[in-house]
Amino acid sequence: TVQGGALKGGRQITSAAFSPDGKLVLSASADCTARIWSTQSGELVHTLSGHRRHLRSGAFSPDGALAVTASDDLTAKIWNVESGDCLYTLQGHSSEVSSAVFS
After folding, report:
1. What letter does residue 34 receive in the DSSP assignment?
2. Which pick of 9, 22, 66, 80 has the fewest CB atoms within 10 Å?
């Protein structure tokens, strides 16, 4: 939850990004999850689980329909923001994925 203006949940937050419309925040965490939060209510909307190691970053697509996460597990994942489902796992990296963004 958002307490005193701070996101609470999971271990160390490594990255946070606003959705294009400003209604959501995506946080990436050292606990192997990302979380999508409502900026209006402060409530947790989705926990994005599936990475096996520390997350480094997360970002929304320009239309806000998708999110991408980057992890030390050598993958990036594409997520459906509305459902919280993982759509794709991008594999084949030879080292940690430190950042991922949409263009």
Report:
1. E
2. 22
* Number of CB atoms found within 10 A of residue 73's CB: 19
d(CA 43, CA 86): 21
Position 8 scores a pLDDT of: 61
pTM passes above 0.85: yes
The first and second tokens of residue 30, run together, are 């050292």
Q: Give CA angle at 37 (35, 43), nearest 5°.
A: 120
Helix (H, G, I), strand (E, B) or coil at 67: strand
Q: Which residues of the chain, if any, have pLDDT below 50?
A: 1-4
- Is the distance from CB of 43 to CB of 35 less than 8 angstroms? no
CA triplet 85, 86, 91: central angle to 5 degrees?
Answer: 180
Beta-strand runs (E) in the chain? 2-3, 6-7, 13-18, 24-29, 33-38, 44-49, 55-60, 66-71, 76-80, 86-90
